[in-house]
Amino acid sequence: MENENTLQNPSKREFNYGFAILRTIMCFEVILNHYWKEKSNPPDLFIFKIFSIFTGFAVCYFFFLSFFLSLDVLVSKNSLKIKKRIWRIGYPQIAWALIYWGIYKIIQIKIDLGVDFSDLFWQLFTAHSQNLNGPMWYQVILLLITSIYIGIFYFAERKGLFIIWILLFLSLFLQYSGINYKLFQSTRYEIKWTFGRFIEMIPYATLGVTCAYYKIFDKLKQNRLNACILFSLFCCFFIKYWIIKPANGYGYEFDNRIVLVFFVTGLAYFLPFEYLPEVFLRILRTLTKYTLGIYCMHMAIGKLLNFILNKTNVTIDSFLVCIIIYVLGYFISYFMSKIPTKYVRDLVN
């Protein structure tokens, strides 16, 4: 997840409202992916069908955006920038693993959740413990690919872009040949779903770096109206026609999502939100905060909320449950952000 301060145009360093709004929507999509029971068979309303389509899209978008926004770090050779980036990725992964394990062990005094020390080990190592916080695998793979790309640009310099495109084509070969799928198919759960997705995330990382490196969105934005129309048409086309055949994989194998990431993110970039009245922009800046915290804590909130609802025999539509999870995550993150220590603020913002 990217915090508010990173949602900027790499060349102009200004806050991008389109990215912020899309980031918020995609954070909610992550919650829908885990707690919306009807995601595969949504109600017959257009808005629900759109939400359903993008439940498996969010992580791809976040990966693209992470590398789009971190180009200056990847190519800088600046040890301070690099250390700060590694901290921003690695610290939440470690800290939230300890928080989840600690909270669940306390709850386990009264209710058996099946949590033991091995869960903490796997959550720290692969971030995909069955009993703790599986979605944090994203942080592990983000850290791994970021470190590799920093190394490539550090030693290869101008050839760096060429090398990461070789990695992209190697990724496609490993996916479509079935090698990546077979390599991790028989490994244990905690390893399979994290490291099986390493190869699947490389195309999104490479595309993000490439778009930032050549300032593709900046150049297209010079003719903003035509870019918005064109990107809207391409978004509709690739949502309706799934023309890229998916490989066997672990949920994020190469398919239409690679082009949808490009066109949806570009469309968000072009939309002229900055011309809205300042009062609306302040509201947008406020409402689009804390997606890091919401992402990191949504599994725990969802588990505890469903437990309470089941105990009280209260039935709430699962889509509404997802909204409640997001709102609770937002307010918990808000109060955590007010604690005057960097170590807490960096967990949510």
Summarize the structure.
The protein has 349 residues and is mainly alpha-helical. Helix content is 69%, strand content 0%. Helix 3 packs across helix 14 (257-270).
> Largest sheet, if any?
none
Poorly predicted runs:
8-13
Radius of gyration: 20 Å
List the total number of helices. 18
Q: Give the rounded overall mean pLDDT.
A: 93
Shape: globular
Tally of DSSP β-strands? 0
Strand content: under 5%
SSE topology string:
HHHHHHHHHHHHHHHHHH
How far the N terminus sits from the C terminus, by CA atoms, comes to: 9 Å
Structural class: mainly alpha
- Helix share, percent: 55-70%
Descriptive account of the structure:
The longest helix is centred in the N-terminal third of the chain and has 29 residues. This protein is an all-alpha fold. The chain is built from 18 helices and no strands. Helix content is 69%, strand content 0%. The protein is globular.
